[in-house]
Structures are given as structure tokens and as C-alpha cells.
Amino acid sequence: MAKRQDFAEKAKKATQEKGVKCAKCGTIKVPMLYVQSVRSSHNSYRFNRSRVQLCKCNEKELFA
């Protein structure tokens, strides 16, 4: 049978922060979609999309 869960355990679980902590600054890393516009050889723009983990350490690098 499943383990019974009381209200105190539910409240404790709701207050916990989800995610991975950064080794340098100790903040929670937030997944984010990084879109970069690149000019192609046909003089049109193309968008490169990539998922990055954002924290206080690399915030200036991505938003600069």
C-alpha cells in the first residue's frame, strides 16, 4: 500500500525549492530558452535556439 501523507509533509514539500544548485554561487539554476539571431549566407536571418541553465554566475554573459 501507499504511504500516508499528512498535511505537514505536504506543506514542507511545497516550500522546498526545485532545481539544481550552482556550485559557484549556490543559487538555483533556472532552465531558459536562449535565442540568438544569426545572418545566413543568403542575407536572411536564422534563429539558433538552445536551452541553458541560468544562475547569477552566468547571467551577465547571457544578457549582455
Report strand %. Answer: 25-35%
Low-confidence runs: none
Which class best fits the helix and strand makeup? alpha+beta
Give the ordered list of helices and strands: HEEH
Gyration radius, in Å = 20 Å
Q: For the residues shown, what is the average pLDDT?
A: 89
Helical proportion, percent range: 10-25%
Number of domains: 1
Helical stretch tally: 2
* Principal-axes shape call: elongated
Largest sheet, in brief, is:
2 strands, antiparallel
Strand arrangement, major sheet: 1-2
Distance between the termini: 53 Å
Number of strands: 2
Quick gist of this model?
The protein is α+β, with helices and mostly antiparallel strands.
State the main characteristics.
2 helices, elongated, 2 strands, alpha+beta, 64 residues
Give the helices and strands, then pairings.
Blueprint: H1 7-15, E1 30-39, E2 45-54, H2 59-63
What does this structure look like?
The chain has helices at 7-15, 59-63; strands at 30-39, 45-54. The protein has 64 residues and is of the alpha+beta class. Strands 1-2 form a two-stranded antiparallel sheet. The model has no long low-confidence stretch (mean pLDDT 89).
